[in-house]
């Protein structure tokens, strides 16, 4: 790929991501920084932990991310009586075939929202360890691969609330980011009160990315990140009327060093 193609490809990726962020920002008001972090976490194939008080839009953010990116979305409400089989799935005996049929759990989705994850017991929390680390689950001695892409968004209530279980270090290590949304500012709060219902807006929102496009972005995110400083330098050199020959020579030198 030559320099012009690299620049055009990177510019197209930036436009796609800007469209994703702008679309989500129409539903989640006043939280642009948190939205950017969530999108960056998904592009980097990481998992996201949102730690905040109830009612600030954690669930809505997860659902909006999945809808805008055209992904399958499942939600699990974690409670103290939730079992690992409720997450992973269970094998049920079929009398007609005399065999066990496996019924997939909600973990077999693209975006899984583990709502209030610290309300479940450590045994249930551990059901996600293999899924988050290896993108697969092992049930009845059989390994089953999860859909691609796979992304977990977990919400966590403050530990001072009754009925919570602290996440162990092994669980926290599976998350790439831990963020807070916080309460909306005065302008966003006024718009929330006077504007349309968020659920109605979410239902009318169309996907601006496909699963295939997201996978391609994930595969190219390292190269895309390394190219960003050069793109800035390239635009600066053009504004300073630096000859293109010099820019091309520098570009190919960078390509040799990086790749």
Would you give an account of this structure?
The chain has 259 residues and is an alpha/beta fold. The protein has two domains: 3-219, Rossmann fold (3-Layer(aba) Sandwich), CATH 3.40.50; 220-259. It has helices at 3-25, 32-43, 58-68, 84-88, 122-125, 129-134, 169-172, 186-194, 198-204, 211-219, 221-239, 244-258; strands at 48-51, 73-77, 89-94, 99-104, 111-115, 136-139, 142-145, 151-156, 177-179. Helix 11 (221-239) runs antiparallel to helix 12. The longest helix is centred in the N-terminal third of the chain and has 23 residues, at 3-25. It is globular and about 60 Å long. The mean pLDDT is 79.
Task: Label this structure with key terms.
globular; alpha/beta; 2 domains; 259 residues; Rossmann fold; single chain; two-stranded antiparallel ribbon; five-stranded parallel β-sheet; 12 helices
């Amino acid at each position: 790929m030559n320099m012009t193609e690299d620049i055009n490809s990177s510019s197209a990726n930036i436009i796609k991501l800007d469209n994703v962020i702008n679309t989500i920002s129409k539903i989640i008001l006043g939280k642009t920084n948190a939205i950017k972090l969530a999108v960056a976490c998904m592009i980097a194939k990481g998992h996201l932990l949102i730690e905040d008080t109830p009612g600030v839009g954690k669930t809505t953010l997860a659902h909006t991310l999945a809808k805008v990116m055209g992904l399958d979305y499942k939600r699990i409400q974690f409670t103290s009586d939730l079992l690992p089989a409720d997450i992973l799935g269970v094998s049920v005996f079929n009398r007609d075939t005399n065999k066990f049929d496996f019924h997939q759990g909600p973990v077999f989705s693209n975006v899984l929202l583990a709502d209030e994850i610290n309300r479940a017991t450590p045994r249930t929390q551990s059901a996600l360890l293999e899924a988050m680390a290896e993108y697969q689950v092992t049930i009845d001695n059989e390994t089953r691969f999860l859909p691609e892409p796979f992304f977990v968004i977990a919400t966590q209530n403050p530990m001072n609330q009754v009925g919570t279980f602290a996440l162990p270090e092994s669980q926290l290590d599976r998350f790439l980011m831990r963020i807070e949304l916080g309460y909306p500012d005065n302008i966003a709060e006024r718009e929330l009160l006077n504007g349309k219902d968020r659920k109605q807006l979410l239902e009318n929102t169309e996907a601006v990315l496909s699963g295939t496009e997201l996978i391609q972005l994930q595969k190219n995110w390292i190269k895309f990140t390394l190219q960003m400083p050069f793109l800035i330098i390239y635009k600066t050199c053009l504004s300073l009327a630096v000859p293109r020959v010099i820019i091309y020579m520098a570009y190919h030198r960078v390509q040799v060093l990086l790749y």
